[in-house]
Amino acid sequence: MAERAEAAPRGSFALSGVALLAVAAAVTGFSAILDEGLWGPTVLAVAAVAVAAAAITRRLVRRWAAVWAAAAALVAALLALTLLFAADTALLGIVPLPGTAARFAELIAAGELSIAEQSIPAAADDGIRFLMALGLAGLAIMVDGVLVHSRRPAFTAVPLLGILAVPIVLAPGALPVLSVLATAAAYLLALALHRPAASGGAAAAGRAMSVAAAVLVAALLVPPLLPPVVVGSGLPGVGIAGLVTGINPVLELGNDLRRDTPVEVLRYTTDAGGGLYLTLSHLADFEGQTVQPVVGGEAIVPGRVGPPLWLGDDVATRTIDTTIQLQNVRSRWVPLPAAPVEITGLSGSWVVDPQGITVGAVDGTFRGGTYDVESLVAEPTPEQLRVATVSEEGLDRYRVLPPELEPFVVDTAAAIAANAEGPSPYDQARALQRFFTSGDFEYSEEAPVEFGYDGTGADIVAEFLRVRAGYCVQFSTAMTLMARSLGLPTRLAVGFTPGTRNPEVPGEYVVTTDNLHSWPEIHFDGIGWVRFEPTPSRGATPAYASDDVPAPGEEPAIDPETGEPIEPTAAPSSPADPAASDAPDPDASDAADPLDLIDGGSDGTLDGPSAGGLVAGSADARPLAAALLALLVLLLAVPGVWRAIRRAHRRRSPDALDRWRELRDTARDLGLAAEETSTPRALAEAWAARWVADPAALAALAAERAALEQRAYAAPRGRAAAADIAVLLAALRASAPRWRRALAVVAPVSLLDRTPADERLPAAPLAT
């Protein structure tokens, strides 16, 4: 008997096929969070091999079929993963060797980092595809095993909902409806093909259908209730919360800046005499609502990087030594001060962008450790910057404007440049910086989310100029594109502001996620990349870019004691002035002359709260809370709905056994006599003792018991006609206290009965 029970169930091949179909349908939902590509066939191939191995094994073995099928599926999945992702480390390209495990570990680490660094939609690189193939193979094996071997096929909804939950959580509202419908259809097909004997007959089929309906309703109704995706917002650059911070060089900084509790990223000591900006990556190519990092370079073993290629002989320089200790950072890019010439303490192979300079890992990530950096920092004077040109060859990519940039942005930049203190590129750059820092713009980490321009691409600039509120991403992106429109080669840098002095260690600075920052850099011939700071109340404006720099032809102030010119000091912001604040009105007609708009410009006052300071708020959680509450209510309603559907089917069933089962299950839900070992006569006597004063219920109970006995003993023609058991159900409910009746509606315990349906009541004898 046991051997027969372990044999492959009838139709197991069909069930395995439907299990794979359901997983494939659910996986299509990942199109909401992944770029187009061939990731689907790769990840599904592993799942298909695993499920096929399980199905074949069931046909070949009779004892312990479920165990052997699962083991075969796991082995097949391992071989498939090896063939697809680590063939060069395996025997014959498919049999894993020790090097295969190391490759898998590298792929897992790369996948985790890629998830942390990329925005939605993400590119399905090798790391992400490996994680997907591994996870989906496991879920496919689970779905197949539950569907074929379990008496509760409805539980296959759990792993399927787990797959659908990934795009629902990462991109609320973006899950394709077709993916939901296809998954629900495959799920219903699986329930329909499941053996009736394993699922409890027609009644259990009805409850399975009710669960399927509830799952379908949840999948269709809950995602739209979640907060919609803010275009460009993407994944937060966060690994394990509070432990590892994955930094996204594509400037998804808002999520980290909006942290309630900042996370320490690194510490550094330097002989610079003050804090340093640390750069992770430089970004150059604007596409829609994203901006891509500079790519290319040559692989080197870190050491002597060499002096900056662009530095002229007449520009003063200073050597700075810095020691950086990473605490909770995980990135392909190494935080570095400007213009590094020598790096020691790193290991492995790295790629250097010689124009940056940016250092990034060829393979793997940089998660921790200490390294030393020697930098050769240029210290140009304002006059050197004022006479510098911006015509050096090889920088055309930093002048390119994306086609989707609104003309209003270009017109605004031209109007600002026309009112600069001088005609030089340096004067134009300072005028752009002053436009943002003069008081007309507000620093806010919430406004971009609220108004839908929380991104880095060209699409967000015009809206940012209209709202005039944002954080470093919006300020730096806007100045970068406006400077490019003036012909200035400009790029974005992403990294950290100097951080906070550690009072316990002289010369040491502590950098947290609150110091994540982005800023524009403009290239001047013979000087190189020069940092500007358009974000009000963040970072520090370099002395050469401050408002204290004398205008062209203006004599600098003289110190009366020394007789020397007074050097300009850094000024993070200054009062509004006509040249900076009188920019075109973004709401005016596109046909208007920008110069005419300047004449009637702003008065320099703020319409909202005063700018400045970090906004330590978070996005409105009420929509998410409402969605979670709705999901909770829906889940709580599932048992009651399931039980109601079962009751409706049994009440008018022509089979007296179905009706008697309903009476016993109702009694069990209400806490009345309903023992599995009790005979129908014993149960009837126990219930009748409660209904002495209810002759109608007693008569109905006697009739129902007689019908049950006739079902067991009488010929088919002699069986009693179907009866409605509503009177008996009402009598049972009246016998229980009110709180128990309420509990029976929301949490019917009869659903937990795992006894096979055909074994609950013997067909005979009934009267013993």
UniProtKB/TrEMBL annotation:
Q: Give GO BP annotations, semicolon-separated.
A: proteolysis
Determine if Protease is one of this entry's keywords: yes
Where in the numbering of this chain does the Transglutaminase-like domain appear? 464-536
Can you provide one Gene Ontology molecular function annotated for this UniProt record?
A: peptidase activity
Q: Which Pfam families match?
A: TgpA_N, Transglut_core
The keyword Protein biosynthesis is assigned to this record: no
Please list the residue ranges that the record marks as compositionally biased, kind Low complexity: 570-583
Q: Where are the transmembrane segments?
A: 12-33, 39-57, 64-87, 128-147, 205-226, 624-642
Q: Which InterPro entries match?
A: Bact_TGase-like (IPR052901), Papain-like_cys_pep_sf (IPR038765), TgpA_N (IPR021878), Transglutaminase-like (IPR002931)
Q: What is this protein called?
A: Transglutaminase-like putative cysteine protease
**Which organism was this protein described from?**
Microcella frigidaquae
